[in-house]
Design goal:
Distance between the termini: 39 Å
Structural class: alpha/beta
Helix content: 25-40%
CATH class of the largest domain: Alpha Beta
Low-confidence stretches: 441-452
Oligomer: single chain
CATH topology of the largest domain: Rossmann fold
Strand content: 15-25%
Radius of gyration: 24 Å
CATH architecture of the largest domain: 3-Layer(aba) Sandwich
Strand order of the largest sheet: 3-4-2-5-11-1-12
Number of helices: 15
Number of domains: 3
């Protein structure tokens, strides 16, 4: 059975649920495999649990004595040797063969939601990129004949169809290319578009985009499974399990956090007008660097001391007395005296991954709900985790003001989903003040073409509807 503890950050998932589960397993002679996001949490478990455990990570197995031994090989060896407690990282877990023969001997505990459940690969074909005799289309089959007919009739690069590997490619160019290896990775399910399929099967010049989805059977077949992740229903992992019908039970639900929180944001950024959407992105920053200058000036005027910052690709734009964090903040509990957070990462999702989510995982939602969940997937969930590194996590929190700075209003508004509305105050920035020219729309509205003709994706949908109504 898969059970989930999705209590909020700092409310006892690790100490009250996971540690007690491990102690129960020890007393009842049950083996435990613990999966954590990174080395920081591995160290924390090692310090907190005073029992022998096998810690496996790349840092250890990159040492000279283990240079020919991968973390996956080390894990399989430990499970074969019936080690009582093993701790690995999320990355090693995604590489573990889903049918490894030892799963039923272990209670699986996953601390924090897996991030690497979906990845995008790109294969570019030019003349003589691979041998004409390879016949890549013979490596795969489709779920049904309708799916095959649809994908072969369209050159769409936005509608996704699942293909299944039916042959082992053996020793070929596939073994020399990471992208090709992703195509035939048994731990992942593969989706392609019509355009991508033509590049692969007809050797049409261009770029094939491939979506790889972790096979959910990786979490099936264990003695038991516990997932501990705050606000789990806002994660990619939740929709991964839901889409592929992996049943789970919520043990402890998420409740919105209380606190004295001021969110500073710009309502003109991240909102859609008739002709354009201004998104806080690297391209916007590059084109209008004064926006960042305005943003940092505002922060310095409204902050109340030290500040923790998450940013990407413009590290030179720094603030005085700041602590810059990476995008993996799990296990960082040293900032509980801080009451200021700068969330200026411009985390814009690849449009092909976004189209996959909307079409395959979120198809039963309306457009607003889809976009809201996309925001959680690519930024809001991370930002929530960062905010909860501050004084809000402290046992001594006495309702001090927590200043949260987020330039993009759409992201700021989705962050509100994690906090009680009565504890939030929104203060508006004006980052476009002094910017001579606002960015203009460079393309047509989504879903239209020149002269308002149907897009290829719309034609494909019409084909499916006709097929359904006229079997």
């Amino acid at each position: 059975m898969i059970t989930i503890d999705q209590r909020g950050c700092g409310l006892g998932k690790t100490t009250q649920r996971i540690y007690k589960r491990i102690q129960f397993n020890i007393q009842n002679n049950i083996n435990t495999l613990i999966v954590v996001p990174g080395l920081k949490l591995q160290e924390q478990y090692g310090n907190d649990i005073d029992v022998p455990m096998d810690i496996i990570n790349s840092k250890i197995y990159n040492k000279y004595n283990y240079k020919f031994k991968s973390t996956v090989k080390a894990l399989i060896d430990s499970m074969r040797n019936n080690e009582n407690i093993i701790i690995i990282t999320h990355k090693t877990f995604t590489l573990l063969p889903k049918d490894n023969g030892y799963k039923n001997n272990y209670d699986l505990i996953i601390d924090e939601a897996l991030e690497e459940v979906v990845k995008l690969s790109k294969i570019t074909y030019k003349k003589s990129t691979w041998d004409n005799n390879l016949q890549l289309e013979k490596l795969f089959t489709f779920e049904d004949s309708v799916s095959q007919s649809i994908i072969e009739l369209t050159d769409s690069d936005s509608d996704w169809t699942r293909i299944n590997v039916i042959l082992d490619p053996g020793q070929s160019i596939l073994n020399d290319s990471e992208s090709f290896l992703n195509l035939v990775d048994n731990n992942y399910m593969t989706y392609v578009t019509g355009h991508g399929w033509k590049v692969l099967s007809q050797m049409k010049e261009g770029e094939a985009r491939i979506i790889n989805v972790l096979d959910p059977h990786l979490v099936v077949g264990w003695h038991d499974v516990l997932i501990a992740a705050a606000a789990f229903k806002y994660t990619k992992m939740y929709y991964w399990l839901k889409t592929y019908n992996i049943k789970s039970v919520i043990l402890t639900d998420f409740q919105e956090h209380m606190g004295n929180i001021r969110i500073h944001t710009d309502k003109t950024i991240g909102t859609k007008t008739i002709n354009q959407t201004i998104i806080y992105s690297n391209s916007l920053i590059k084109k209008y660097p004064e926006i960042v200058t305005n943003y940092h000036t505002y922060i310095n005027q409204h902050r109340t001391g030290r500040i923790i910052t998450v940013r990407n690709n413009h590290q030179d734009k720094s603030l005085p007395d700041e602590e810059v964090l990476t995008h993996n903040v799990h296990g960082l509990n040293d900032y509980q005296d801080i009451t200021n957070v700068n969330l200026e990462s411009a985390l814009n999702m690849d449009p092909h991954i976004e189209s996959f989510y909307k079409q395959v995982w979120l198809m039963n939602m309306d457009k607003y709900e889809q976009q809201r969940m996309i925001l959680h997937f690519h930024s809001s969930y991370l930002f929530y985790q960062v905010i909860m590194r501050t004084g809000l996590r402290s046992m001594n929190y006495a309702n001090e003001v927590i200043n949260v700075f987020i330039p993009d209003f759409s992201i700021a508004s989705s962050v509100l989903d994690y906090f009680d509305g009565d504890s939030i105050e929104i203060l508006e920035m004006n980052l476009l003040n002094g910017v001579k020219q606002q960015p203009k729309s460079t393309g047509r509205p989504i879903g239209t073409t020149k002269d308002n003709k149907m897009t290829k994706a719309e034609k494909q949908k019409k084909y499916r509807d006709n097929k359904k109504n006229n079997p």
